[in-house]
Amino acid sequence: MEQTQKIALITGGSRGLGKNAALRLAEKGTGIILTYHTQQDEANKVVAEIEAMGQKAIALQLDVANVKSFDSFIVQVTQALQANWGTGKFDFLVNNAGIGATIPIADATEEAFDNLMNVHFKGVYFLTQKSLPLLNDGGRIINLSTGTTRFCVPGYSMYASMKGAIETFTKYLAKEVGPRGITVNVLAPGAIETDFNNAAIRNNPQVKGFLASQTALGRVGEAEDIGGIIAFLCSEDARWINAQRIEASGGMFL
Fold first, then answer.
1. Is 181 exposed, middle or buried (0-12, 13-18, 19+ CB in 10 A)?
2. What percent of the chain has pLDDT over 70?
């Protein structure tokens, strides 16, 4: 039987941008598999919210920094797809999970570098690789990047470098999966007021005010500004957008 409902796998879907993307995709009738690292209760609340819409959703634990765990995670995904949707495949992969860190170059440590690399580059690279056999032809892959690959914020050298690697990876990936009709794009948010990076923007009115003043629309972003863009990139209307970096920053540092 042909799979009719679209299904999305969203990493880091328990809060922030991932949560909003899950809700917006569910609103459009998409089944949701979301992952969480430690926030199981928060993830379960997102699942309950999606189920209240009449859609199916499940939450799976995943540490995106631990590549050795990916084989067993893919088994879990396969089992969840069969149990909940009667299929072995899904349609949209949203590589959203991430951590923030503000570390000047002079203070950088190898440990911090490796941690950011494992979460933001190595983990994304190999989770995507291992997900490809489960991804339907004609599917979508969306990788999250950052405005700080275009403009520089002191302290973000490691984080932005990993995201720069993701932007290059996205183009190569698009080239290699193109014959399967799969598109791959990068979404690069600007400053967003969430609990990301210890809520660095939310907790610092001076920083928030400065960033708002440097944004054409006069404010910092919110998670609700981003989820709908992810949902759009997964839609049929976005089928001809491929290998692009799409910045959603309200017009920062123009």
1. exposed
2. 95
Question: Binning pLDDT at 50, 70 and 90, where does residue 202 land?
Answer: low
Q: What is the mean pLDDT of residues 96-111?
A: 96
Tokens for 173, please give them. 């990936």
Q: How far apart are CA 222 and CA 120, in angstroms?
A: 21
Give which of 22, 17, 109 is closest to 58, Cα–Cα.
22
| Set 36, 156, 159, 172: catalytic member | 159
- Kindly report the backbone phi and psi dihedral angles of residue 218, in degrees, each rounded to the nearest multiple of 5, phi listed first: 80, 15
Across the range 79-107, mean pLDDT stands at 96
Per residue in 40-52, pLDDT (tens digit) is: 999 999 999 999 9
In the chain, where the domains are located = 7-248
Of 117-131, 194-208, 229-243, the least confident: 194-208
CA–CA gap between residue 150 and residue 156 (Å, rounded): 12
**CATH superfamily label, 7-248:** NAD(P)-binding Rossmann-like Domain (3.40.50.720)
156 is known as an active-site residue: no
Beta strands in 52-209 (DSSP E): 57-61, 90-95, 135-144, 183-189
Instruction: Give me the pLDDT at residue 201, please.
Output: 65
207-230 burial, b for 16+ CB within 10 Å, e for fewer?
A: ebeebbebbeeeebbebebbbbbb
| Distance (Å, whole) CA 161 – CA 201 | 21
